[in-house]
């Protein structure tokens, strides 16, 4: 039996409107509207307030003395106290984020672009870059490459510890908003002072652009994208940054960051991005004074060396939000507490003593600022998230941090939004009550500006620090080159000395294509030579032993001596000339020149004495000058004969010519 269409209820206006209704939008909660490339600022949802993003490189603190750490902490505290002005109406807010990013794609791109175009196009450079790309992908896989039970006691996973700082202030809409130019100038002025203050502490901070902010948050809100078959590394290639020009009408920066619909689950107090549960754990208070570099500086515990952040669950993001409120307001608050603590009870006495101590600290420059500390945690499912949450709580408690448990945190979903970059509103914190007053010295201890060395940024040679971050430098780069051109590698048999040298030589060849001379006792590098030859490099391998007829010219560079400015009469053998000549050679060696004459003198002395130390010790300074004179005379003779190279016989003939000089003493 079919129903009669005429019996159906008519469509009402209310029903029609209900069909057009939509659920609450996640992107409506995000504050970012637009990136302004001219001022490198981000426009917030009110259309007036601006924010800035910084990428910070921490100071390497391995094996540093306590005095150095204290000095660094004091410099960071000075930057907090002095660089950012204190405003009462719309205070500046400083947010610091730290996380370990396992994707080494950007570093792989840096390696690929580092060689010159000619070297980059060679067969060996292309081969080595392919090998390194596979290696970087293997060491950065989820879960890490292996568990480091010897040094750090945690997983070893190729990664980069990224530290980002956000600076902004929310202007109040009281009908007297300043002009856009004034807001931009104020932000850029404070940002410049902040960068300079960090630089004085040895911390490198750079302004980040819209692309950096987009790539950071796109990976955050799309951790398991279905459009790339759950491969987050391919997401930036599929959905790159749209750029800053020729944007469509109604463009919203925040709307570009979510490719799937985020959902919130009130029962579990989690946000779901790509069906992966996320939550935030807020720290209620500090149980004790934090150590210098509390989270990211290395510490010794038994035989292991690690930082606290190394042992946090994978994909954890720490967020510190600092509000730069005027100290007058804080002093009035402390004074009010002291006046209210009247009576003879023990509680009142302790409160008065604490208030007096706080006032004394503030008078000494140890300012008191509201701070909130939170940790973003995620899991593959609810069970995995619960495991990571319990693991994080178990790590925070013994290190002096009191987290709010899941059952006690009734604002977890809201806190997830409010701890996002530039989303925190000082006015709303009056009801949330998640911030706590913390001394600036303790804030400096908590900030993640203490880290591990990462090198110079020139990836000629690639190593890894204890946190599995790439540590790079290039001895052939003009900024990295030093006068000392020697390296000593020590280790027992089988420790990997030759393997390390092979690794270094491969990188040098792939980056610079230098001419390499390898002199070894054995055959440790024969396979390396075959490897180079297989990829089109010219290799000349010579084995030296009594049964092999090999001629090595020890005086091949003698003709170069004739072009040197200090060439002198080869038959002048008085002591003053001898001292001047030897001193000139030593001076030239000190300023970085090669002592060619000294090298050939050593070769001649070895042939004259047969390598006997006792015979060599009998040679006087005058004897050394005669040897040098013979080399000069041989070079001059060969030059006059228009020959190309000085051989040993030429030096012997020069000795015979000098021996016939009647001006020489008989014993010469």
Q: Averaging pLDDT over every residue, what do you get?
A: 88
Q: Globular, elongated, flat, extended or rod-shaped: what is the shape?
A: elongated
The largest sheet, given as strand count, sense and whether it forms a barrel, is: 13 strands, antiparallel
Oligomer: single chain
Radius of gyration: 35 Å
Please provide the count of β strands. Answer: 21
Please give the alpha-carbon distance between the first and last residues. 133 Å
Structural domain count: 2
DSSP summary: helix tally: 21
Which consecutive residue ranges, at least 5 long each, have pLDDT under 50? Answer: 565-592
Helix-strand category: alpha+beta
Strand content: 15-25%
Approximate helicity band: 25-40%
Give a quick summary of the entry.
With 668 residues, the chain is α+β, with helices and mostly antiparallel strands.
Describe this structure in words.
The structure is a single chain. The protein is α+β, with helices and mostly antiparallel strands and 668 residues long. The protein folds into two domains: 27-103 and 140-451, no CATH class; 558-659, no CATH class. Strands 1, 2, 3, 5, 8, 9, 10, 11, 12, 15, 16, 17 and 18 form a 13-stranded antiparallel β-sheet that branches. It is elongated. It starts with 12 loop residues before the first helix and ends in a 9-residue tail after the last helix. Residues 565-592 have low confidence and may be disordered.
Topology:
Blueprint: H1 13-19, E1 32-36, E2 41-44, E3 50-57, E4 59-60, H2 66-82, E5 92-101, H3 105-113, H4 117-120, H5 123-139, E6 146-148, E7 154-156, E8 160-169, H6 180-200, E9 204-207, H7 210-221, H8 235-238, E10 263-265, E11 270-273, E12 276-286, E13 299-301, E14 304-306, E15 317-324, H9 327-340, H10 346-363, E16 368-378, H11 382-396, E17 401-403, H12 412-418, H13 429-432, E18 436-439, H14 440-446, E19 450-451, E20 461-464, E21 470-473, H15 497-512, H16 526-534, H17 575-590, H18 596-609, H19 613-617, H20 621-640, H21 648-659
Parallel strand pairs: 4-19
Antiparallel strand pairs: 1-2, 2-3, 3-8, 3-9, 5-8, 5-15, 6-7, 10-11, 11-12, 12-16, 12-17, 13-14, 15-16, 16-18, 20-21
